[in-house]
Design a protein that fits this description.
The complex is a heterodimer of chains A (about 300) and B (about 375).
Chain A lengths: L1 E9 L5 E10 L4 E6 L5 H8 L7 E6 L2 E2 L4 H7 E5 L10 H11 L5 H9 L15 H12 L6 E5 L7 H18 L2 E5 L3 H5 L4 E6 L2 E7 H8 L4 E7 L3 H11 L6 E6 L4 E7 L3 H7 L5 E7 L4 H11 L1
Chain B lengths: L1 H16 L1 H25 L3 E7 L5 H9 L5 E7 L3 H9 L5 E5 L5 E4 L5 H25 L1 H10 L12 H5 L5 H28 L3 H6 L4 H29 L12 H21 L3 H21 L6 H5 L2 H13 L6 H24 L2 H4 L4
Parallel strand pairs in B: 1-2, 1-3
Antiparallel strand pairs in B: 3-4
Helix pairs in contact in B: 1-10, 2-8, 2-10, 8-10, 8-11, 8-12, 8-14, 10-11, 11-14, 11-15, 12-14, 14-15
The chains are: A alpha/beta (about 300), B alpha/beta (about 375).
């Protein structure tokens, strides 16, 4: 668990990067940190990794206080940051072996990381000549060399192509399940984050404006108004005619979208859902019912606009 | 220990694989050595002396025997019919001197007063002829010579107290000294500074902060890489110098411990500036300002109005030590004390900055 209690960070030029923030993030979740540029995400990560000192407040990581146990906390946390670069002159093998030996870990850790990150074919290549995607994989491997309890990923998806992003998301899920790490991700790529996180922290001008589980957030910011029903019709035209002739606008269909000759999607007001089902003929079958859940993008803008 | 060794290994791999840095270290010293070779060749040019042959003269026999003695002089034997040609050659710098035996008693030396080579050649010929005359007198008229010697107010005797090898080293070869200073002072300063700068600009310094190392260990490992790089370059320079026949640089082998101490001192200074400054250009400027004036002033062995300012810099004391190593002179204890003091002061300050300053502030903007 990581806990920030009234933490403030002011830089020398009087920039208030973090302003009296308090939150808790729990081990069982993958936590997302979102916010505009300069909102304090990276500073928060630096503080949590003991790479910066808080001007005031307490930082507690796995029951250890940062003020008295900085070295211990640094061994418990791993940091991946888009701004950090590895040594370009070293090969992948030399680099990973350096971090493994520096942490007094056995060579088997190298074999494990190599197979997990599929680095076998790249181990003798210099880091300086690797592609962005491969370089980030090595950086991720380096950040987990010491088997941290909490892994901080700062902008992990920036500059990655869709395939590399997919690979990266898979790796993060794998780290969560296999290494049982508490992962905290900060990113602007909300679509990628959406599939990963269960807890969200939203920062704005150095303040935490939201620190909630996604479930609670949806409860607060999303009251379902409509439902999306996909229906497999025997004859789509007959059904449409029937509805047009018989309903006299008693049923409120928000949106209708013909997907194929037989499959049609209807967005129906929540209160009319049962009525819509009774109107289906014998040859019509409900293919799926989708919850009209907002994307993280929508949620983010909704949160920002509500404050 | 294993952890420390892996850190040293990493630093050395990075330094060794950086071929560009080796080129930078060795390029200027090698150029200095080559320039030195050209310079010495131009100074030790052959002087051509024309001797006018006369059928009944004896002067030829004197110079014929000298022809093999010294490669810097070459005698061209001509006769009176080609005298005009020889004078033309003298005017056109092809000859340095013409020696003419006008009769059995008189030798005329034709030379050009405002030409250095002509003056050197005339001095050489006069010396040789005087030696020949005195030897002839001793051989054929020894009794008269003895009687004359008794009547002389002084008799000059020579006593060679220093052997030839020491005489060769009595003057500092500036180019060799500059090459050495480049490897021992300028590049270790710049390399140690850049090691920290690179870690800061790539933000890889954060990784080092998170690793279970003491800051002293990290700097020590980095220093080892700087020392290895400089010593390797020095060995290459000694080998190259040996190939070209420059012996003075081999004196560094005897003063190896002092050279090592100098590299440690200057790299401590480099780490300090690397940690304090966040700008490559400024670092290069500081490297040049803190090293180059002292290298030049000590190399030329002159004094300036800002000597007091130069003396408070570590590079002054290192330059003095290196100069004395090259000249095989006794190294001043004062210089060594200063070097040790500077090493300790800058090392301790660097460690304090490295340990106490926030990594996020050391690395600049994130």
């Amino acid at each position: 668990m990581i806990e920030f209690i009234n933490v403030t960070k002011i830089y020398n030029n009087n920039t208030r990067a973090l302003d009296d923030i308090t939150f808790q993030a729990f081990d069982s979740d993958i936590t997302g940190v979102i916010g505009h540029n300069g909102s304090g995400k990276t500073t928060m990560f630096m503080l949590a990794n003991g790479l910066a000192n808080a001007t005031s407040g307490e930082i507690i990581v796995d029951k250890y206080n940062m003020k008295s146990n900085r070295t211990k906390i640094q061994s418990l946390t791993g940091l991946f940051s888009d701004t950090m670069r590895l040594y370009p002159m070293l090969t992948v093998r030399e680099c990973l072996m350096f971090f493994i030996e520096a942490n007094s870990l056995p060579k088997t850790r190298y074999d494990y990381l190599c197979s997990m990150f599929k680095l076998e074919n790249f181990q003798n290549k210099k880091i300086g000549i690797l592609s962005t995607g491969m370089m980030k994989k090595v950086m991720l491997a380096v950040s987990i060399v010491n088997k941290p309890h909490i892994l901080f990923l700062d902008e992990p998806f920036s500059g990655l192509d869709p395939e590399a992003k997919h690979d990266f998301i898979f790796l993060i899920k794998q780290l969560k399940s296999e290494e049982n790490m508490h992962i905290i991700i900060s990113t602007h790529e909300l679509m990628e984050l959406e599939s990963l996180i269960r807890y969200l922290i939203v920062l704005k001008n150095g303040k935490v404006i939201i620190a909630e589980s996604m479930r609670n957030l949806l409860d607060v910011y999303y009251q379902p108004q409509s439902v999306i029903i996909q229906v497999l019709h025997d004859n789509i035209e007959t059904f449409n005619k029937y509805m047009t002739l018989n309903l006299n606008n008693e049923l409120k269909i928000v949106r209708q979208n013909i997907i194929s000759k037989k499959l049609c999607e209807y967005e129906v007001e929540m209160s009319h859902f049962s009525y819509f089902v009774t109107l289906l003929g014998e040859g019509d079958k409900i293919h799926s019912i989708l919850d009209n859940k907002p994307t993280l993008d929508n949620l983010y803008f909704k949160i920002h606009s509500s404050l | 220990m294993r952890k420390f060794l892996c850190l040293i290994k990493k630093e050395n791999i990075i330094a060794t694989k950086n071929i560009q840095s080796y080129i930078l270290i060795l390029l200027i010293p090698i150029i200095s050595i080559i320039v030195n070779i050209f310079m010495s060749q131009s100074i030790r040019q052959t002087i051509y002396i024309a001797i006018i042959e006369n059928s009944d003269n004896s002067i030829i026999s004197i110079f014929e025997s000298l022809n093999d003695d010294d490669s810097n002089q070459e005698f061209i034997f001509i006769n009176y019919t080609t005298l005009n040609l020889a004078i033309d050659d003298l005017i056109n710098n092809k000859n340095s001197l013409i020696v003419e035996e006008s009769d059995s008693k008189n030798v005329i030396i034709h030379y050009i007063d405002n030409r250095q080579d002509s003056n050197i050649a005339s001095q050489y010929i006069i010396n040789k002829l005087q030696l020949y005359i005195s030897q002839d007198l001793m051989k054929n008229h020894s009794e008269e010579v003895y009687n004359l010697q008794i009547k002389q107010p002084y008799i000059i005797k020579t006593n060679n107290v220093i052997d030839n090898s020491d005489i060769d080293n009595s003057e500092l070869n500036f180019m060799v000294y500059f090459a050495l200073m480049w490897i021992i002072v300028l590049t270790p300063f710049s390399n140690s500074c850049n090691q920290i700068q690179q870690e800061k600009s790539c933000k890889s310094l954060f990784y080092l902060y998170k690793l279970p190392y003491k800051k002293t260990t990290i700097l020590l490992a980095k220093q080892t890489a700087v020392i290895v790089q400089s010593v390797l370059s020095l060995i290459i320079l000694i080998l190259i110098s040996k190939i070209f026949g420059i012996t003075q640089i081999a004196n560094t082998v005897n003063g190896f411990a002092y050279i090592l101490l100098s590299i440690i001192c200057i790299s401590s200074l480099g780490f300090f500036f690397g940690l304090v400054i966040n700008n490559y250009t400024l670092n290069t400027l500081i490297t040049l300002i803190l090293t180059l004036p002292n290298i030049l002033v000590t190399g030329i062995n002159t004094t300036t109005k800002v000597d007091f300012l130069l003396k408070i810099m570590p590079s002054y004391h290192i330059s003095e030590v290196i100069r004395k190593i090259l000249l095989r002179q006794t190294i001043s204890f004062e210089n060594l004390v200063y070097i040790c003091a500077f090493t300790i002061i800058f090392y301790v300050i660097s460690i304090l900055i490295f340990s106490k300053k926030e990594p996020i502030k050391l690395c600049g903007r994130i």
